[in-house]
Design brief:
15% strand; Threonine aldolase family protein (chains A, B, C, D); PyrdxlP-dep_Trfase_small (chains A, B, C, D); PyrdxlP-dep_Trfase_major (chains A, B, C, D); Aspartate Aminotransferase, domain 1; 10 strands; pyridoxal phosphate (chains A, B, C, D); homotetramer; ArAA_b-elim_lyase/Thr_aldolase (chains A, B, C, D); 3-stranded antiparallel sheet; Aspartate Aminotransferase, domain 2; 15 helices; 7-stranded mixed sheet
Chain lengths: 331, 331, 331, 331
């Protein structure tokens, strides 16, 4: 019973169907009809003009989005535990040509205007220190916590006031939207570019970069090709994304994953290290307790010495979820 | 009737089947069983120890392979019309951190030891000019022509004698092997790293980088992640590659494409600008002749003012091929 | 008797004096009074607002200037024999983060709008090929030839019309101005940034980058520091530049070098491969003739098999120049 | 009375003399006799084979040295307050093509094997996190503290055991050697490459990169040119370095600066935030106290709200030093 990650879950049947339906040859790269439909589809979802590009991975999505905002001599402010800092193999350094990541602190891997100010304020004027060009936040955060619209409004106002760009890593954006009640626009309020995650949520190999400033997309089109991320059979990626958006499959899948996490969290109330708002549970536990869970057939990652990380995916099986909830309650 | 390119062709049914069969969750990234099977599978094919990595595009394959051989202050020698120079949006400059491409000439986009020498010899000793670290050749070439094993032996000996690495862009490697009679090892003789193309030949989104020096693969694993090319559901890419290798599907597909090209070429003998050895036909033709072909429903690219480029794919329909042959004969 | 290059000539006594006069400690980096005086001094010289930065080398000057105009996914158009292409050890690839150089042809290493068009026109729309962001020209050219103001006006209009930046490598800018009659503004007409060479013309280790668009300078200040080119005792570099500008020392020195070249050229009329407009002479000559000159004590470089390159510096000694002229006449 | 920094001090008269003596033209770049003499001169000083390159700045020295040890996908471990992290405008990101700096803690800006282990140990195996390729330490440290030979031996053994390179930023290497008693070899024990600072210690614009592994120097020669740091009149830089080494001028100058700092420190015993081992004094002080010192004519930097940083240079005037000591004692 796998609670290791949502990043290796199955591909949703409707995504399979959409890929198959795209098999008929069309123009290569992003010249096909499906790829061309993305802008309008995301514009409808967000209620404003968007330009959207597909790429194969969240790392590429994050770094390409940031490359539209950050010059090589600049920096990105992000949380100390952000994926771009901790888990992307130095990709920001590559895509941003040596720009730095400046690390902010914050509860549950969320950052606030105050946390950003604590990074910016000590930077001396002039050229001896690197200055930020953008801020990157993660929705939901590395600890599965969700920025509320009013938090985003305050963050965005602060970030714009400093003349910086604002990027959102939405590897689990669907889970955040599901938690907030369903408005994609609210969950990305004030953001310039969003990495809209699909792979953890039912797709196979397609993420969307959504730009709310079309000029950024025009630059990133060149950067995507230059990074070897412009696939020639791009229609299969576009098909995945469109299938995810069709009839809110992305939202249904995210709700299913969130519900599974909630069920587990309800059984683990006193052990939760972070509020369970999306599909991740950080569970205070001894090594012996974790061994006991594993003996019962549950797979998950240790999180340091005193905790476990459990992730539910869109395809979590109800009997596995219930079994895990019981097992945790019985510890 | 599309003869535009092989890069947007269908996905082969056996590749679809293999992807579906991979749907059950396994370890993410390249920790799954399918990804782990690649080294042995390619080692068997080439009759020597190989390490193989999947990536989504030929551009990524080429540039990552070269990144194992070329330092940022170095250069790659390639043909003036090589894909890495002409069609990859500057990706080599990105992946090689500013290393240069030094351009060689040669018939039908093939290069020889003499052509390489004409690039190297004028380079002055010392640090004022950039020195090559590797040579990249394309099999089959940009004009669909194939390096014979003895040509590769001579090239490789020359390149090694200069202390350089040797990379092969095999976007149409299958077509070259099919032409040569079926030995993958012969078609990649003396090469350090091969971009083994699958997408043009029946796969959806998976190319293989095959390293004949495992130390190169160890470095490129880091570079692949850093470039955002390590997909979390890597098992679907590995599945495509394994399906292509299973029972020589790659070779059958390439033979089908080559046969279609040969049939067309036979009808166009006096108009061929290059020998038709793989699946591309460069057809001397006037604008009026090309318009006539298009009127009959054939799609293809102009190649300058006086020629057309026609490409056959693995799924070329016999009646389309025959019709095109007739139409060309009738010009 | 050295006619190898002007790049190792003596430091002019007035430059020495200025450096000594700067010995009293002042603010480090470019916070000292001398560094701060550069903008006004160059603005006066060019008759318009300029921002000027010192750096130690022409390579740094060229590449930093270009870094204000060219994004990593772009390119620079320059002459096939430009210093940035042939002699800077790949520095443009480093400073521009992998951007390409696109090579134009032209008589005497000068380029024209037509030559630029021949580079641009075949570039396909879209992201598969690299597009230029700037043009770089050399004044005086690699063959010692000078762009006339009307040529610059035409070039600049064309380049601006394409939306590109225009950079001038002025390693021998003084020699060009001297040839044209003394107006710095005329010799840099229509240019966005100028590498104003001082080292070949009497300074020790200071070149100026002159920006006619101050926003470019603001960005390059960061890039200069990031490249390790912001010296802490910057006052000694500023002192050199100010001394060169004082009472037109730069122009007097350039005139002296040009006059020496003219005297030699007059003796070599029938052998000149390029017009002698600055301080370089390209002399058609056999190996035996060059050996004869060397036997008489003259040092210079071969230029291929059939020519010699002779360069005169600001401190060329009259008796050496006269002797060389006689020797050439006597061949 | 300036105690702001040693980085804007005068040029020593013997350095001036050496530069003047180098005025006669010689081969350009580093082909002159003086530049060629550096290897032997440093080999004699360190009692082992060295290869030494001049550059104009400490930032270039540090980053070029590191570029011989660190690949773009790697990282450098350094102290959280190291100059390369805090004061070089992102130059490591540029020179190392996006490699990261990983920050270690430690008293007085020195690091220990344990501190390095605390950085390395949490890094997960595999490609998702960046792995270090080198460690950089600063001698004397940012707080003017000196690594003892036995500390260096332990550090070096640890670093080598991890398969990493070891770089020493010796911007104030002379001050460290002076403190330790005069052996350059002891002060750089176990190091692969040393940035040997000259500019803060009496030179104008020349630092030395000393490689104890000649293969590193061979690579860095290309990188230096590529970074625009190969000056054409290199003989003036070599002359500065040779003058500094002649009759141990570097050591005498460092001793003078250290003695001045010691005199001040003796008057400030109870206020010292760090041991005064080189030429920097970090003085606990209130804003009012600092204002009082400034009223008396002393110039220096605040160090946060509760301290001052005072730096003595080789040319500190005895009466100024004595006056400062008295003033501090009288606070």
């Amino acid at each position: 019973m796998k609670f290791l990650s949502d990043n290796a879950a199955r591909v949703h049947p409707r995504v399979w169907d959409a890929m198959k339906a795209a098999d008929e040859p069309d123009s290569p790269y992003d010249g096909d009809g499906l790829s061309k439909a993305l802008d309008a589809r995301f514009s409808a979802l967000f209620g404003r003009d968007c330009a959207a590009l597909w790429v194969a991975t969240g790392t590429a999505a994050n770094c390409l989005a940031l490359s539209a905002m950050v010059e090589p001599h600049g920096a990105v402010i992000c949380h100390r535990e952000a994926h771009i800092e901790m888990d992307e193999g130095g990709a920001p350094g590559f895509y941003l040509h040596g720009a730095k990541l400046l690390l902010a602190d914050g509860e549950s891997a969320k950052i606030t205007p105050e946390a950003i100010a604590r990074v910016i304020d000590p930077i001396r004027d002039g050229v001896h220190q690197v200055h930020p060009h953008a801020v990157s936040i993660t929705q939901a955060s590395e600890y599965g916590c969700v920025y509320r619209p009013e938090e985003l409004a305050a963050l965005s106002a602060f970030v714009k006031g400093k003349g910086l760009g604002l990027h959102m890593d939405g590897a689990r954006f669907g889970n955040a939207v599901a938690f907030l009640g369903g408005s994609a626009a609210d969950a990305a309020l004030g953001v310039d570019a969003l990495s809209f995650g699909m792979v953890k949520n039912g797709a196979m190999s397609a993420e969307a970069i959504v730009f709310f400033d079309p000029a950024m997309a025009d630059k990133v089109r060149f950067r995507r090709k230059r990074a070897g991320h412009l696939q020639s059979k791009g229609r299969y990626l576009a098909a995945q994304i469109l299938a995810m958006l069709e009839q809110d499959l992305w939202l249904d899948n995210a709700r299913a994953a969130n519900a599974a996490a909630s069920e587990i969290a309800a059984a683990a109330r006193s052990r939760l290290l972070h509020p369970v708002e999306a599909n991740e549970i950080f569970l205070a536990s001894t090594a012996a307790e974790r061994a006991a869970l594993r003996t019962q057939g549950f797979e998950f990652y240790d999180w340091g010495d005193d905790a476990a990380r459990l992730v539910t995916a869109w395809d979590a099986r109800e009997e596995h979820v219930a079994a895990l909830a019981r097992a945790i309650a019985g510890l």
